[in-house]
Write a structure and sequence with these properties.
152 residues, alpha+beta, Replication Protein E1, Chain: A, five-stranded antiparallel sheet, 5 strands, 28% strand
Length: 152
């Protein structure tokens, strides 16, 4: 078995809680937003959250970006089986940065990449998970302090 075949097999068997997907020419493959939502909700029992938005690339290629998060790890091969035409990668960074990438806001705002966004196509489903290693109460307290609600 070659190194490339070994890496491909390892990728197909890897398991992650979150993935980024890009579906180029989604309508050609029957993937409008409704079909994408239905595929995710009906075929992934541990689905917790997803967001998606459409873009038109610099070369004019329509595509849909998705960020999906599961309560438990899901095999790459399972995601690929349900979205065979998609480019799929394990999600890197934190949850907020992945959502920002799909929305094209935050560090993406004002960039060439943000100009590819198709306004009005952003959708999300489920509850945004709290990032591991953070506490929601401390996060809220930090936001209040930043907003000036402190006598310190």
């Amino acid at each position: 078995m070659s190194i490339i075949e070994s890496n491909k097999q390892q990728t197909n068997n890897s398991q992650r809680n979150a993935y980024q997907l890009t579906i180029n020419n989604p309508l050609e493959y029957g993937f409008d937003h409704l079909t994408i939502k239905k595929t995710l909700v009906e075929n992934f029992t541990t689905l917790r959250y997803f967001c998606m938005a459409d873009e038109i690339g610099k070369e004019g290629t329509p595509h849909t970006h998705l960020y999906v998060y599961f309560n438990s790890r899901v095999r790459f091969s399972t995601v690929k089986k349900n979205f065979p035409s998609a480019h799929i990668e394990p999600a890197h960074g934190n949850i907020e940065s992945n959502i920002s990438y799909v929305k094209k806001n935050g560090k993406w705002a004002g960039t060439d990449k943000a100009e590819t966004r198709v306004d009005g196509t952003y959708e999300e489903w489920g509850t945004v998970p709290v990032q591991k290693g953070t506490r929601a109460d401390m996060e809220e307290l930090y936001e209040l302090i930043k907003a000036g609600y402190s006598n310190a």
